[in-house]
Amino acid sequence: MSTNERDWFSPEQQPQPPQQGWVPAPEGYTGQHARPPGPRHAVPRPPSPPAGAPAPPSGWQGAPYDTRQARPPVRAPHPDQQVWPPAARQQGSSTQPIPVVPGAPAARPWPPQGLPPQPAPTGQHAGQHAAGAGKPRRRLLVAGAAVAVSLLTVAVNLYDTHAFYEQQITRGMNHIETVVPAGQPGKAYDTEWRVAVAPTKPPEGNKHGPDVTWMKVDITKRVVDAAAATMIAEPNNVKFTDRAGREWTVPIEPVGDRPLERLEVGRDYRIQGLAIVPTAVADEVELSFEPSNYRSDTPTEDLFDREKMEALGVDVYVLRFRRR
Fold this sequence. Notes:
The protein is an alpha+beta fold. The protein is built from two helices and twelve strands; from the N terminus they run ββαβββββββββαβ.
């Protein structure tokens, strides 16, 4: 399409007349507000100040100086005032005037300079005062006595409960103790038990003196009958006992992996323990424990069934191992 032909798909551009109030830039001016050729880029002419208006300041570079804008009112300067510490107010310097009431009494000074002394109570009033002073002390004594009685009642109930518990737990139980010769296995619940006891070196960080001897315990458990394969629990009440009947608890723990449901028949399962005893009786103490009769195949609800638990019997087997 020729450049002289009209584009019928675009709106026709009409030449715009120069806007009112705009004047062309001087010839040869190339500054910031230079007007490119065309009627749209005319430089706006600032409004003319009214007659008698002051001229703009010398060197003014801002917007066109319009003297018709209202000037802010000039505030009178205030004298300096003391801020801190607060200055004493003069009478009549309230921020809000308070009307004076004719015939009103003079204001009392505050805070009061002092109170008149009170006369000492005498006679019947003195006795009432002493009785009133003794009431708080009497109340404290009564409260303390009530607390002491409550604590004593709780202690008696706890003692009775513990005694009843011991009586019910140990009632009818028959402890059957078996003394095992030195080097021989003990047997209970179709399971053989072997024990080895010997002094050992103290562990690192030991804070005990030479009056204490560390004893190492090795226990071996072997199931000899398949009927006892589910008796997987560790022995109970493992302890050392000397000839005088004194006892020392022996903490134990299993060694190696162990099945949680059934033990293999004929296989040895090790248990280790470590304890301290007085050096004077280290050669005479003997190890004893109670083999557990717990079975892994016992239903959980049977453990809370009194009849089924009583059917297990009340016999408690104890194995005591001689050392020589």
